[in-house]
Specification:
The structure is a homodimer. Chain A has 18 helices and 15 strands. The first copy, chain A, has a 6-stranded mixed β-sheet with strand order 1-2-15-12-10-11, with helices on both faces. Chain A has a 5-stranded parallel β-sheet with strand order 6-5-7-8-9, sandwiched between helices. In chain A, strand 1 and strand 2 form a beta hairpin. In chain A, helix 6 runs parallel beside helix 10, helix 7 packs parallel to helix 10 and helix 7 packs antiparallel against helix 13. Chain A is globular. The interface between A and B is large, with 144 and 144 residues.
C-alpha cells in the first residue's frame, strides 16, 4: 500500500493544480451542460468548480489507483474496514448499509436480517402502544441525536400525529430541567439511545428522570445487545443496534427508526430507507456515481486548491439542522492524522464542515465567502418544489422562485466574480462551488441525500487511505473528565495536579 | 497610516512566532495563575494559549501601535468609523453602544436620547397591549434575526408570560407555511424587522401573511425613519433604529428590544443593556480590558500561528444559538480583502467562526479538534451555576459538576496532548484555547458577553486596519438574483445569458 502523496495521479493532479481553470473567464452554456451528473433522485451541477476534462479524468484515475470502488463494495458486503494496520484498534465491519439491504432480495447479510427483525419488533410495539403516549423524550447525544433530530426536522411536514417530540442531549442540567417543566412524564415515552449503554450524558439524564417518575412501561432503550442498557427489568422494550454500525452512520438503524417511526409512521421511515438504499447502489456504479464525484471534487478543493473548509448551504428551511449532522459525519470520520498503515499523514484530510440554510446564510457570512481572504469550498443543496407546495405570488414571482433565483445567483457570482474599480465593490470570483439539485424533499429523497453524504465521506477516507470509522480522539477528554469528577467526589486538595487549578475556579 | 504587516510589532511577533511555547511541556500552577484576566462579570483563563510574557507584551504593543484603544473611544463617542479612505462608501458613525449609553448620565449622545425615546414608546405600547396577543411572529433575517433569536433562547428561563414566539426569516415558503398552520393570526402580533425596509425575505413574508389577515392593529415595524416600512397607514406602531447601527450589532437596539421585552418584560431587557454597557466601559480601560485581550489572542492565533478558524463552544445549552450570531458578527465584519486605505490585503483577517454547545460538540467534531491536521483556535464559554439552579446528584456528582469537569478536561487535554506509542491514541496537543468563565447566565451577564464579542471583533478590525462596519460583499448576489427574477417574470428565452441555464433547471 502506498501513501496518498506518492500516488501517480496525486503527482499529476499537483501539476494540474498549478493552472486550474479561471472561472471568471470560462463559464459558458457548453460548460454548464458538460458538468452535470444526473442520477435520480439527485443531480449535481458543477460547472462552477475549478476543474476541466483533464482534471476530472485524473481525479477518476485517483479513485482507480486507490481502489475506491472496490473498497465501497467491500464495505457494503461486510468486510472488515474499520481498522488501522498493525495496531490495537476496533477491527470491525462497517454495516450501516445493511439497514437498507432489507429491500434487496439478492443480498441480505445477517446484519440486515437482524435489523429487519428489529423493525418487526418496532411495528409490534407501535401497534400495541397506539395513542398511549402524548410526548416522546429522545435522550441521546452525538450520533444518537444529530441524525435523528436533523431528519425529524427535515420531515416534519410528514408528521402523522400530535405526539410532541423533545430531544435531550446535553449534560447541562438546564437542558433537562427546562424540558421537564413542559411535559407530563406519565404520558411520555422516554427513549434512551446509547450504543455503548454507558454514555454519561444519556445515562445521567435518564437516571434523573427516573427520580421523578420510574414506571418501566414508559422507558425503552436502543443499544447494543448485552450492554448495561439491554435490561428488560428496567425497560419496557430494548431495541438493538449492532456494534458494526458507527454512531454517526446510525440514523437508518434503530437509533433513528424508533423516534421517526413513532412520529411519521413506519411507512415514511421505510421510504426514507428505500431512498438510502437507492444511493447505496449508485455508490457502487462505475459511471454516474454521484458520491464518488462529490468525494473527488472535495479532494481537489482540499488537497490541490488548499481550501481549508467546506460550507454546506441547503436552500431549504427543513434542512436547517442537516449541516450539523454532516459536520459530525465528516469531521469525526476524516479528522484524523494517521493513515490506515499507521503512519503520520503528510497532508490534510477533511477540513471544517460548517453551514446554515439559505437564504439566511446570505445575510450572515456570505460577505466572507465573496470577499474574504480564506477561500471556502461550497456545496449548495436545493429542491425544485417546496415541501408544503403552498406558496403565493408577490411582485410577480413565488417565494420558491425567489429562493431558487437567490441560490443560482450565489453559485454563479461566487464563481464568476465581478471586476470593479472601487476595490470595495470588487469580487475576485473563483470560489469553487456546486449545486446538488433534487425535485422535492420527500422521505426517499432525504434518504438518498443522507446516503450520498455518508458515501462521499467514506470514499474520501478510502482515497486518503485513512480509517474513517473509529474516533480515538474523543477518549482522552473522557478519561480526564472522569479524573476531575473523582477529585470532586474525594474533596481532597490535590495541589500537585494541574487539573486542581480548574476545580478552584468552579466555586 | 501603515499596513498591518509593516508594523514594528508585527515583525517582532513574526519572530516570536518561530518558537511559541510548547503547551505539552509548560503547563504549571504558576502559569495557570499568571494567565487569568478577571473583570466582573467575565474572567478569561488563558494559560492554554501558546503565549508567554514576551508575546503578550508585544501583542499589547501591537494594540498601541495601531491606536486600538483610541479607535474604540472614537467609535463609542460617535466619530465616523465606517469608511474606506478615498472611495465611495457608507461613511457613517458606528453607534450600537449608544443604545447602552442611556445608563450613563455623563454621556448621552443624541443617538442614545433617540433610543431612549423609542424605549418609552415601547413601554407605552406594552402597557396598552397587555394580554392582547397570544403569539409573536418576529419576521427578520440576518442581523434582524440571529441576535434576537439567540438572546431569546439564552434567556428563556426568564420568560414572564405564555406568549409563543416564532421567528420567520427564510424566503423558503416552507418556513412561513409550516408556521402559519400552527397559529391564529387574529391573536398574533406580527413584528417586521428590516433596517432598510426593503429586505426581500421580510417584505415578502409580511405581504403573504397580510393576504390571510390584514388588520393594521396586529402589525408593527422596526426600521429606519422614512423607510418604506415607516408607514403608520399599515402598521399599528413603527419603532426606529438609526442607520448608524449595523444590523449585526443591532441586538441591543429596537431590533432586539421589542420581541425580547414582550417576552421577558422590559426590566429584563434593561438588565441586558446594563450588562452590555458595563462591557462597553471595560473596552475603554487601559488595563484588564477583556475584549482587547481576546482580540489580541485571536490575532496571534490567526496571523502568527496560522489557524484558519475559530470554534466557539459554550458549555451551556441556553447559548446553543449564540455561535450562529457571533458567526455573522465576526465574519461579516472582518471577512474583507481591502484595508481602510483601500489597498488589497496581504494577510488573512478573520477566518471561519463556527461552533456548537458542549458537551454536545465533544460527541460531534472534537475528534477533529484533538487529532485532525487542521488546527482550530477554540474559545470555551462556561458558567459556574446553572440557570435554573435545579440539579441532582447521580454517581456522587451533579450534572453541573459533570458539565464543568468535561469542559476543563477538554481545555487541558487539547493543550497538553498525550504521547502514546499507539499512533491512533496519540494526541499532539498544542491546540490553542481559552475559557471565558462567568458566574451565571443572567440577562446582565449575557449583555456583557455579547458586548465582549462585539468589541473583540471591532478591536480586531481596528488593529488590522480594515472597515469592520460595511458589507459590500452581499450586493452582487442580490443584484444577480433580481436579474434572474426579471427573466422569470418576462418568460423570454435568453439563451445568450449564462444565468438562463439555471432557469431551465428550475422546471
Amino acid at each position: 500500500m502506498i501513501d496518498f502523496c506518492n500516488l501517480n495521479s496525486y503527482k499529476k493532479l499537483k501539476d494540474l493544480s498549478l493552472s486550474p481553470p479561471d472561472l471568471t473567464k470560462c463559464l459558458s452554456n457548453e460548460r454548464f451542460n458538460d458538468y452535470i451528473m444526473d442520477n435520480d433522485p439527485l443531480k449535481i451541477l458543477f460547472s462552477t468548480e475549478r476543474i476541466n476534462k483533464n482534471i476530472l479524468a485524473e481525479l477518476f484515475n485517483l479513485a482507480n489507483e486507490t481502489h475506491a470502488l472496490k473498497k465501497m463494495e467491500n464495505m457494503q458486503s461486510g468486510q472488515v474496514m474499520n481498522f488501522v494496520k498493525g495496531i490495537d484498534c476496533e477491527n470491525n465491519k462497517v454495516m450501516h448499509t445493511a439497514t437498507r439491504d432489507v429491500f434487496d432480495e439478492q443480498r441480505g447479510t445477517k446484519e440486515s436480517k437482524f435489523f429487519y427483525n428489529e423493525i418487526l419488533k418496532l411495528k409490534k410495539f407501535i401497534n400495541e402502544n397506539n395513542n398511549k403516549f402524548k410526548t416522546i423524550l429522545h435522550i441521546g447525544i452525538g450520533g444518537s441525536e444529530l441524525g435523528p433530530k436533523a431528519i425529524y426536522k427535515a420531515l416534519s411536514r410528514y408528521k402523522k400525529n400530535k405526539i410532541k417530540v423533545y430531544f435531550i442531549s446535553n449534560i447541562d442540567p438546564d437542558n433537562l430541567f427546562s424540558i421537564l417543566k413542559k411535559i407530563d412524564l406519565k404520558t411520555t415515552l422516554i427513549i434512551s439511545v446509547s450504543k455503548s449503554g454507558t454514555t454519561i450524558e444519556t445515562t445521567t439524564n435518564e437516571k434523573i428522570i427516573r427520580k421523578f417518575y420510574n414506571n418501566k412501561e414508559n422507558y425503552i432503550s436502543i443499544t447494543t445487545p448485552n450492554s448495561q442498557m439491554d435490561d428488560l427489568a428496567r425497560y419496557n422494550k430494548c431495541f438493538y443496534i449492532l456494534d458494526s454500525i458507527g454512531g454517526r452512520f446510525s440514523s437508518t438503524s434503530m437509533v433513528g427508526a424508533v423516534t421517526l417511526s413513532l412520529s411519521f409512521g413506519i411507512d415514511v421511515f421505510m421510504d426514507f430507507l428505500k431512498g438510502a438504499h437507492k444511493m447505496d447502489k449508485i455508490a457502487l456504479q462505475t459511471s454516474n456515481n454521484l458520491p464518488l464525484l462529490s468525494a473527488l471534487l472535495g479532494i481537489w478543493n482540499i488537497n490541490f486548491l488548499n481550501t481549508s473548509n467546506l460550507a454546506i448551504i441547503p436552500y431549504s428551511e427543513s434542512l436547517s439542522l442537516f449541516p450539523n449532522h454532516l459536520q459530525q459525519c465528516a469531521m469525526e470520520s476524516n479528522g484524523k492524522s494517521i493513515s490506515q498503515n499507521a503512519s503520520f499523514l503528510n497532508f490534510k484530510p477533511s477540513g471544517i464542515l460548517w453551514g446554515t440554510q439559505g437564504t439566511n446564510a446570505q445575510h450572515s457570512f456570505f460577505q466572507f465567502l465573496h470577499q474574504g481572504m480564506e477561500i471556502s469550498a461550497i456545496e449548495f443543496i436545493a429542491f425544485k418544489k417546496s415541501q408544503y407546495e403552498e406558496d403565493m405570488i408577490v411582485d410577480d414571482t413565488t417565494s420558491q422562485e425567489k429562493l431558487l433565483a437567490n441560490l443560482f445567483a450565489q453559485s454563479f457570482s461566487l464563481a464568476k466574480g465581478h471586476k470593479n474599480e472601487n476595490k470595495n465593490k470588487n469580487f475576485e470570483g473563483n470560489r469553487p462551488n456546486h449545486i446538488i439539485l433534487a425535485n422535492q424533499l420527500t422521505p426517499a429523497t432525504l434518504g438518498s441525500l443522507l446516503a450520498f453524504y455518508e458515501h462521499k465521506i467514506a470514499f474520501q477516507g478510502f482515497i486518503w487511505h485513512i480509517n474513517s470509522f473509529d474516533q480515538e480522539g474523543v477518549q482522552l477528554g473522557k478519561k480526564l473528565s472522569t479524573e476531575i469528577l473523582q477529585m470532586i467526589k474525594k474533596k481532597e486538595k490535590m495541589t500537585d495536579n494541574y487539573l486542581y487549578n480548574y476545580l478552584k475556579e468552579m466555586n
